Amino acid sequence: MKLPDIAFLHELADAADQQTLPRFRSSENLAISTKPKEGFRFDPVTLADREAEKAMRDLIAQRYPTHAVMGEEFGLKAGDERAPCWVLDPIDGTRPFLCGLPVWGTLIGLLHHDRAVMGMMSQPFTGERFYADGSQSWVEGPYGKVRLQTRRDVPLDQAILHTTSPESLGQTSLKFDALDKAVLMTRYGGECYAMAMLAAGKIDVCVEFALQPYDIVALIPLIELAGGVVTTPDGGRPEQGGQVIASGCPRLHSQILSILN
């Protein structure tokens, strides 16, 4: 399959940005509601989430009408049997979005034969786009365009660990406490921005416990094409979400899996 031009992912991000950025840190009524999510008592969805996903779906329908689309807010639209599938999260990190913290982003991923092949994370408030074009990973923003490269061969005791929220720690059999004690430091609350920082070589390990496909598909190629590794705890492919571990290099990843398991 010939991959779409990366310019189309930028178009999708532009459409989403037009819906999310004006509502960020705004006094506008965002019509906040909550969805059931295992392990969380509050999982918000807002008008910004819904309108951004609608805008992206409309563009995909116009340009690629035979493609499937999976989105957080409006579910799965089936496509032709052999067609790729777009995987959308209009605001990954709705809770920090509501708090005025710029660690949320719009996630745009593309699956082909159930494998993540392209992806983008757009953070319009900081003016950054992190993306994988099918062969390399890049960031474009206030400092220009830079190729992304994970930090490699970091000793475990010097590694920086991230997980979004401690709420899920009590519901996993993974030995996160042991990993926490083995690394240099652990940080929380970075959402998709932390995964982008792993691809950029600023964070070494991200562990997440309850992802959906739309939370991770866009980020898989971003990290892999920057030199990192993304798997489930048993070393399997992570496109279906669940428990997901991302590391900056294969050697470190092997150590992380050994500790967590």
TrEMBL record:
Pfam families: Inositol_P
Gene3D superfamilies xref list: 3.40.190.80, Fructose-1,6-Bisphosphatase, subunit A, domain 1 (3.30.540.10)
Cross-referenced SUPFAM superfamilies: Carbohydrate phosphatase (SSF56655)
Record-stated family: Belongs to the inositol monophosphatase superfamily.
PANTHER family referenced in this protein's UniProt entry, alphabetically: INOSITOL MONOPHOSPHATASE, INOSITOL-1-MONOPHOSPHATASE-RELATED
Record's protein name: Inositol monophosphatase family protein
